[in-house]
Amino acid sequence: MAESIITFVIIFCCGSVFYGIGIYASKIEKPMGFWSGIEVKASEITDIKQYNKENSIMWKVYALWYYLAALMGFFYPIFAFILMILSCTLGLVLLIMNYRRIEKKYKRKDEV
Predict the structure, then answer these.
(1) 75 φ, ψ (degrees, to nearest 5)
(2) Residue 112 predicted with pLDDT over 60
(3) pTM of the shown model
(4) What domain count does the chain have?
(5) Which of 22, 107, 106, 10 is nearest to 67 (CA)?
(6) Which long-range contacts (CB under 8 A, 24 or more apart) does 34-42 make?
């Protein structure tokens, strides 16, 4: 039982970091970047508020997979482990693909 509690706390904290990023994205005035160290310029985004809203939702949904894995850890530890592996691998790929979709949707097109 102690292992389940420790696992729950660790996974829940990981999910909370991602959820916190989602909250931050919903409150920030400038465009939210995805990659570390890469700044998205406001002049490159057509609708900053909507762009950040979609980023916020993306991060919060990603966090939900971690919360679900944390809760599953009490009842089905092996499924929680599998969900964590999927969240950290396939989930990350889906996160990147979703961000690129958002970026493509709101990035200004160069006028020729």
Answers:
(1) -105, -40
(2) no
(3) 0.88
(4) 1
(5) 10
(6) 34/96, 34/99, 34/103, 40/103
- pLDDT for the residue 47: 94
Q: Are 41 and 96 in contact (CB under 8 A)?
A: no
Q: Residue 91's domain spans which residues?
A: 2-106
Q: Rounded to whole angstroms, what are the CA distances from 27 to 24, 51, 96?
A: 5, 12, 21
Q: End-to-end alpha-carbon separation of the chain, Å?
A: 63
Each residue's pLDDT tens digit, 64-82: 999 999 999 888 889 999 9
> 2-41: per-residue pLDDT in tens?
877 888 899 999 999 999 999 999 999 999 988 877 888 9
Q: Is residue 46 a contact partner of residue 97, using CB atoms and an 8 Å limit?
A: no
CB 56 within 8 A of CB 111: no
Determine whether 3 is exposed, middle or buried from the number of CB atoms within 10 Å of its CB (0-12, 13-18, 19+): exposed
Assess if residue 111 is contained within a domain. no
Is residue 11 situated within a structural domain?
A: yes
